[in-house]
Amino acid sequence: MSQSIPAAKIYNDLCTLADAGFDTWVKRAHNLYNQFQNISNISLESFLSLSKPSMKRKLKSAFQKAYDKSWLQQLNDSESPPKLRTYKTFKDKFCFENYLYVPDTKARTALARFRTSSYNLEIEIGRHHKPEPIPIPDRLCKECSEVEDEVHRLLQCKRFKALREPLIGKCKLINDNFSNMKTPDQFNFIMTSSNRSLLNVVGNFLSKAPNSE
Questions:
Q1: Cβ count within 10 A of residue 1
Q2: In angstroms, rounded to a whole number, what is the distance separating the alpha carbons of residues 113 and 35?
Q3: Boundary (domain end) residue, out of 19, 50, 75
Q4: CA dist 61 to 22, 57, 193, Å?
Q5: Cβ-proximal residues to 202 (8 Å cutoff; 6+ apart), any chain
Q6: Do residues 108 and 145 share a domain?
Q7: Sign of CA dihedral 14, 20, 25, 30
Q8: Number of structural domains in the chain
Q9: Are residues 66 and 97 in the same domain?
Q10: How far apart are CA 166 and CA 130, in angstroms?
Q11: Residue 155 has what pLDDT?
Q12: In whole angstroms, what is the distance from residue 90 CA to residue 113 CA?
């Protein structure tokens, strides 16, 4: 950045003032950086000597790590909303998810709703029952008389056995050991997959498997 540009002059003046002990934006950025990084603090002198691109990268990295840590702690908090009960079993990183690349709008929407417990399963319907929530053991699938949660719908419900066959077949092609996995592990394998071809199949299944009525 040219020193003749007003923004550059202002930044340099702020650095000078920060170095002199004044509470400027640059000094606050330095304090925030030291607050959020996990290694030993960097001195103000060293911080001010960084190039602007380097400072930007370091600040962005420190803030991102701090946010990711806070986000994960809140997600796994024992008092987190019941709606997150399934989401936090497979979501452990704040990032853009590959299911958002699923081209079919209905399939992509079904996947998003399913992941966030907005899929109208009995496990959620019972939570909103009035005047009192239905106890979890009584939030049953009308077809199977088992608790209807995300795992049940995706992998177990007898009503959708035929519709599920392409999904199970795709999983077996990707992972030879899929059939030997326990059901929770199969569910986690599917929900954490970055394979877009598999995610297309999952989305199609969820969009065609009707919600509870």
A1: 10
A2: 36
A3: 75
A4: 26, 6, 26
A5: 99, 111, 154, 167, 190, 193
A6: yes
A7: positive
A8: 2
A9: no
A10: 38
A11: 97
A12: 15
- CB 83 within 8 Å of CB 117: yes
Q: Are residues 68 and 93 in the same domain?
A: no
What type of residue sits at position 48? L
Average pLDDT, the chain: 85
User: Phi, psi at residue 140, to the nearest 5°?
Assistant: -100, 150
Phi, psi (degrees; rounded to nearest 5) at 132: -130, 145
Q: Assess whether pLDDT exceeds 70 at residue 73.
A: yes
For residues 135, 140, 146 and 147, what is the CA-based torsion angle, rounded to 10 degrees? -50
Give whole-number Cα distances, 15 to 28, 40, 100, in Å: 11, 22, 42
Return the structure tokens found at 206. 């969820």
- Considering the domain architecture, whether residues 100 and 39 belong to the same structural domain is answered as no
Spatial separation of the C-alpha atoms in residues 145 and 150, rounded to whole Å: 15
Give the pLDDT score at 211: 53
pLDDT at 212 over 60: no
The DSSP symbol for 5 reads S
Domain encompassing residue 32: 6-75
One domain for residues 59 and 98: no
The per-residue pLDDT for range 22-54, each reduced to its tens digit, is 888 777 777 777 776 655 567 777 777 767 677
- Residue 129 CA to residue 139 CA, distance in Å, equals 10
Q: Which two tokens stand for residue 130?
A: 């009035």
Which residues are paired to 140 by β-bridges?
147
- Phi-psi region for residue 117, left (φ > 0), alpha (ψ -120 to 50) or beta? left
